[in-house]
Design a protein that fits this description.
Elements lengths: L1 H19 L4 H28 L10
């Protein structure tokens, strides 16, 4: 009985999200992934810009 009740609750939640226009979990994940990618690129941009300009010697550790 619990499985059936849980399924009904899940479907009711999904129907509510659709009716209210709330983003689905997949949409939330996609938005979060895009934000993480943008932040990651902002951290790596200075390094790749330096590499592209031939300034690799700045990053040597020896």
């Amino acid at each position: 009985m619990n499985v059936k009740r849980n399924l009904v609750v899940l479907l009711a939640c999904l129907a509510t999200q659709i009716a209210l226009g709330q983003p689905s979990l997949a949409e939330k994940n996609a938005a979060e992934n895009a934000a993480i990618k943008k932040e990651w690129e902002s951290w790596n941009a200075p390094f790749w810009t330096a590499v592209a300009s031939g300034a690799r010697h700045r990053f040597r550790t020896h």
